[in-house]
## 1
Amino acid sequence: MRPLLGMHVSAAGGAYRALYRGKDMGAEAIQIFGASPRSYVANLPGDEDVAAFREAREKTGIGAVYLHAAYLVNLSSDTPALRARSEKNLAAHMAIAEALGADGLVFHPGSYGAQLPEDGIRLTAAGMRRVLESVPGKARLLIENTAAGGTKLGGNPEEIAAMLAEVGDPERTGCCLDTAHAFESGIIDDYADPGTLGAFLERWNSTVGFARTYAVHANDSKTLAGSHNDKHENIGDGHIGTDGFRALAGSGAFSHAAWVLEVPGIDDLGPDEENLKRLRACFA
Ligand SMILES: [Zn+2]
């Protein structure tokens, strides 16, 4: 069984356009920003936009749609005002996900600053709970693993599992595995080595669990394992390499998840057909 494969696509000109852009490049799954990733302002789409999106989804047959939250969101911040703004913005993106009928919203857990990591975990979980309470529906709120470093949370599956356990709403939560972030955080330094990959998969499955991993961000890494330096690279051109992706694909561990590319693109114009072709070949 091969998972749904696709990419992050631009939603410029209307979210429905992203579905056609993805379809044109051969995507079976897409990810979009429901609103600007660099602003605290996020407006709900109008009725016409929603209708156009639902129609386009049917026409294109795109199997999975995920939204990516704004980069500014930090539910674990040591500054209450920033937490409040983050929560409000994340809830607004969640409401957009619900309006569009998206499968979920992916967000980064943020930095705990001057607090302890366990404070950050507790605050993130509390924020997630309030977001879910304020936006009823079916879309899942997914925690993405990060490249860690400094006081950044979510660089390992134990922290993600702790946050998910504390939220306690398995129907509406889950996680997203970013292959580059896992490599950069140092929780896996060689996907192509069977022993290393096996240990990583066992660690992931015994903490967050494969079944709770609904999306995979398929990205190669420009930086070395353990660098804590988040720089995505085209599939096969980075330090993970084609053999690494082939091994992860071949493991079958995430075959139920939607795999989306967040790579710079061959022409630096974002995820493209060539990267999707390279990823697809890893499943052959
Ligand atoms: Zn990612």
## 2
Amino acid sequence: MLHFDQDTIVAISTPPGIGGLAVIRLSGPLALETIQKYFSSTNRLKPRYATFGKLKHPDLSEGDFDDCVVTFFKGPRSVTGEDLVEVSIHGGTYVQQKLLEVLLRAPGIRAASAGEFTFRSFLSGRIDLSRAEAVADLIHAKDAAAHKNARNQLQGKLRLLVDSMAGKLIHSLTIIEAELDFSDQEIDVSPPQALLAPLLELHKMTEALLETYFYGRRLEEGIRIPLVGAPNSGKSSLFNLLLGQDRAIVTPQAGTTRDTIEKSIIIAGHSVVLIDTAGIRDAQNEAEISGVDRSKDEIEHADLVIWVQAPDTETASPDKVINTPQITVFNKVDLINKRPENKDVYLSCSTGEGLDSLREKLYEQVINMVRTGVEGVILNSERHQDVFIRFRDQISACMNSINNEVGPEYVASDLRLALDILGEITGETTPDDILNQIFSGFCVGK
Ligand SMILES: Nc1nc2c(ncn2[C@@H]2O[C@H](COP(=O)(O)OP(=O)(O)OP(=O)(O)O)[C@@H](O)[C@H]2O)c(=O)[nH]1
Ligand SMILES: [Mg+2]
């Protein structure tokens, strides 16, 4: 639970466990005073200077318990907007715990909640909500594409886009309010119909933005590519080859794979989830029936399906026609002389023939899925999607009001509501419970 208070908070800001160095951060009015009780150095702590010294612990007979480097940032010129102290110490669990223990004993100091440092940055106006969320995305980014998207958002691209959309709404609002103010006077004001064109433009822009969400989710979760086909066609053999490790069990017996197995690889800078599945056939026993159901489920949720066929097996197909892009792979070409026509890739898992061609096709398909976004913005969070859906609907409501020639005061109130919805992206109008939910999703120390 996040607190709206002025307490000084402390937390370890590096992942738990033994590392090279650990950073412990203190933020709040007592940060400097508190660290000075336990830090000794020949140099004075100056803002924005790193100072080498020793840490003292009142309970330890040896006095010093670690060397450290302390950096002090005087508020408001710090990331939290408050006095902030960062202590770099050796990354051993004992050393970290000892320092934390002694700091938490100091009066007026409490342990930070998850995301509380970033929350304070937000409260002090150092970053808006969309940038705070990008911090979490950046930490979790698994590949170059997700990292680039998080960086764009962190650098404020979403904020800029929202500001420009809000600017357009405010312009419309000014026109309507002028009409309200001067409607009883002989002054020429624009009719509300003049607002339809800019509102339609905003509507289209929002639609385009919402269309990026599908790709944005793939950036977060990875592009899902199951290998499907009849039992024994060589799905698990291919899965292992693409991963470069013997992850799935391969045997000559049809029906070897029962449960789905997932593993991520990077293709064209994107995280791709490869899924080995049970061979599709009219299964007899319960375990295999469940396995086949799971295979069909994977086909439903796939972004791209690799269909594996082989000369010594039946050709499996799903119960219904699927619209998902597919690559048909004809495997075990080492066993035959004459190849069937119209397959995308002719492969032999035994000799490796055709593997490069399959890799090229996978690369092309992944590149095909890449979207550039609107002004560099790709929506990747459900919260943002929800806000923009409500925003789009509110813009429609504004246009309807104008078309139905309701009074300008109603149009103005519709426009204000749209503006409020947009403010939820940057945090200006975001309810407290949503803020809590967002920041508590961070780790402690961030
Ligand atoms: N000759 C030849 N044999 C292959 C090739 N690829 C796979 N096999 C063999 O075919 C058999 C089945 O391979 P798997 O990879 O287990 O097939 P699967 O599609 O995963 O089978 P299920 O899990 O039962 O659905 C094994 O004996 C493999 O060694 C190939 O390219 N050439
Ligand atoms: Mg298998």
## 3
Amino acid sequence: MNDEIAGRTVLVVGGAGYVGSVLVTRLLDAGAYVRVLDQLIYDNGFALAHLLDNERLTFHRGDMRDRVTFTQAASGADDVVLLASLVGDPVCKRYPELARQVNADAAERIIDTLDTLAVQRFVFTSTCSNYGIHDPASLAHEESELNPQSLYARTKIDVERYLLDRAAQMQTHASVLRIATAYGLSPRMRFDLTVSQFAWELASGRELLVYDADTWRPYCHIRDIAKAVMTLLRSAPEAVRGEVFNVGDNNQQFTKRMIVEEVQKHVPGATVEYRDGDTDPRNYRVSFDKISDRLGFHPDNSVQDYLGALTAAVQAGVFPDVHGNQRYGNYEVRHLG
Ligand SMILES: NC(=O)c1ccc[n+]([C@@H]2O[C@H](COP(=O)([O-])OP(=O)(O)OC[C@H]3O[C@@H](n4cnc5c(N)ncnc54)[C@H](O)[C@@H]3O)[C@@H](O)[C@H]2O)c1
């Protein structure tokens, strides 16, 4: 592994989002020249406000579906990290046509232009949701059968296949990260994700309704997601080209009930109602051995540590007015005609 990030020009598409605003900070800290292409579809430009006077950051407001916009942003970049999409089952369900256009069609068009633009490395961010339902008695690994339960996961799988079919012939070294459900504090918080949602509801004194409490998911801190992307950018090309890596931690997989119990350690007496029969049947545990064995990637953070900080912040009133608020979740898409 050689630290080649300093001095490289990295385009982060979707860099103003929940994961992106943390990744951009880390890339700048590592000495990279960072370009962000983002259409700010949740009016989320505030997430980058504190970085906009960094002389190594260039911000392009624009829609990645537009070929000229993407080409201008990517021209001369060494590496491209694609984060932008309609992220999550609910927003894809609400805007199915946009989800196909952005998550699948535009991502595939971007892949088609990488060689022409002489991009050296490309990282596509996909999701462990692709495993959908997998007997939690065994861990799903990168070769396991995919079992998508949502349009969101289907669009991600379509792009994975498109990329993996071409990766061996491409000049660009392209890889796929299948990322666990994210948690962590970001300039652009998302309280529409399990850990943060449960903590916010309980720490702000609400009653929490939890469906299918004993379904499993893996979780990953956004700083560790950023670290994984940077690990890919630093790794030997032959180790990552055309490869899929799950991103997470074997020891950070929980049922919803386990997360509630962790939150209750910080919010004693918080009340929860459990019910069966959700519309989200996802249930899976995942092996993260490949990225650890091959690339030496190990996460640094835990849900347990995060919950102390988040519940204290919620109780201190740092996050008022969360429900349905664009600032805090992927509810209503704007600026995508
Ligand atoms: N958050 C998670 O739990 C999680 C888990 C697994 C994988 N991922 C993946 O990580 C990536 C980032 O997720 P996130 O949570 O940061 O999402 P996010 O919704 O917070 O950020 C997405 C960003 O993309 C931008 N965007 C959307 N459509 C665009 C377009 N057409 N043109 C330009 N910009 C556009 C949005 O304005 C936003 O800033 C996604 O690829 C997602 O699938 C996230």
